[in-house]
Protein: Redoxin domain-containing protein
Organism: Haloferax namakaokahaiae
Amino acid sequence: MLEVGDTAPDFTIPIAGGEVYNDISSFTLSEALGDGPIVLAFIPAAFTSGCTTEMCTFRDSMHRFEGLDAQVYGVSVDLPPALNIFIQQEELNFPMLSDWNHEVIHDYGVVLPEMYGLYEAAKRSIFVLDSDGTVTYRWVEGEGETDFGAAIDAVYDAVAETVAS
């Protein structure tokens, strides 16, 4: 698993921007670096209650990240068209990245091996990267309930600290 201070692995995967069929393109992490901090919020699966709550908490907090020129991306193993519907349904104001081939969750060390005992997904986790691609903050869900508001506050603080340095 990546630790604070590690260089985040580069990747190119589909990005869903909200339109069902015509808003899927390619996203390369290294091309997005340099424009401010990047937040990668990994979720196990779109449309599930915890993931929806987390992504909606990010949605409702986006004004804080925009003020710091931070880019926020949800990351899931769901297919891009499903993520587009998820974005529309939940009125998300940030794109979702589709790691449908599961390479990124392996590279970042956040594999949930048996979601519902059926398939591999992402562990709920958040990484903040500085403009050079260095991990400045890492959070991976542990046991018990997650306080998404507190997690977003910690991510915001990490982004603000990254911008200040």
Remarks:
- The mean pLDDT is 88.
- The chain is about 35% helix and 25% strand.
- The first strand starts at residue 12 and ends at 16.
- The beta strands are 12-16, 24-28, 38-42, 71-76, 96-98, 111-115, 119-122, 125-129, 135-140.
